[in-house]
Amino acid sequence: MLHSALRAGLFAGVVFCASVSMAAELAVVSGDTGNGLAFLQSQLKDFEAKTGNTVKIVPMPPSTSDQFGQYRLWLAAGNADIDVYMTDVIWAPQLSDQFLDLTAAAKDVVKDHFPSIIESQTANGKLVAIPGFTDAPALFYRKDLLDKYGKPVPKTWDEMAATAKEIQDKERAAGSKDLWGLVFQGNAYEGLTCNALEWVKSFGGGQIVEANGDISINNEKAAKALDTVKGWVGTISPPGVLAYQEEEARGVWQTGNAVFMRNWPYAYALSNGADSAVKGKFGVAPLPAASASDKPAATLGGWNFAASKYSRHPEEAIKLALFLGSKEVQKNRAINQTNLPTIVSLYDDPDVAKAAPIIPQWKEVFINAVPRPSAPTKIKYNEVSSLFWSAVHDTLSGNGTAADNLEILEAKLTELKGSGW
Ligand code: GLC
To answer: What is the architecture, at CATH level 2, of domain 138-299+373-418?
Structure first.
């Protein structure tokens, strides 16, 4: 007995040692909004159990611009401490040289994803990252307040602003002193580029830089869009909105202090959480357009997983990236986080439809979403975007007129283009 127990122990020890020496300690870096990092942690347990690897999360601030700045430095320095990066949809052309090619490893699953999303993550013929979820914003509205004042869900920006003002004024007079009409992302960062592209595009003012590389932003319609939004700051939107990112907007909304909010679908699940003051009181609709005959515009967002070229465990890093973009994880994401899947079949999945009806409803919105000009401007996209959001932020802050700021922006973009993109 003793002998065999010893033998078994010894054998277990050998197996244990062998698996320890093969198992990798991986690190995935991610910033996220809401409880995104807690969700990521919950999914890693499955990966660890299946592979014997351990994975630690390196948490980052939620701003995609802050993440990009840090990642660019780490990658340039060949940082071997990070194996997998959660990457924004706009980064693929800029960071492609630093990530491993996932083409071979993903060959059996790429067909399950929307081809346009796979294309967005492909640079120079290389699959730079595997999609984790896609994103397209919504107009969140307080159904209870619209019903109380007999207002329809607004279809135009002017209608939205008029409804916001009326409800804000009447509710404040009745004692809801902290109520605002609209919250959005007005801070000087990538999120403002997303918001402002929606305003400009929906006013017929183009897409900043067009798909063929033409710089189109200096036009009257774009200026009119920005002037319109400037009129909201301090009237239907708090002056502090110029410092808001996604989470600040959600904070005001979710404590019941906004009639409307522009935000991404992640805010849907959280707004319906047990601790939310607006649980069960809101709906979502496509963003408004400039007029009833114009089309609204939603900026295409989304997140992916890339394996670092500098990882000490490249094969395991690729496995982890693929796992985080797998159908299993995307389904859990859809159900728990109301993140939009990039896997086509999940839009017809009955469990997803039941738990998160917004997902199938949002398919049309994301399919028609407008891309930021990261493909035409390639490695210069971040500079293009930062010049754009600065011009918009200046305009909304009263620092120069929209027309002047867009003219200056055009000159700066032309100079940037001159040095090649
Ligand atoms: C969302 C989008 C992302 C975008 C960011 C801007 O996270 O998914 O693509 O860049 O918002 O704040």
So the answer is: 3-Layer(aba) Sandwich (3.40)
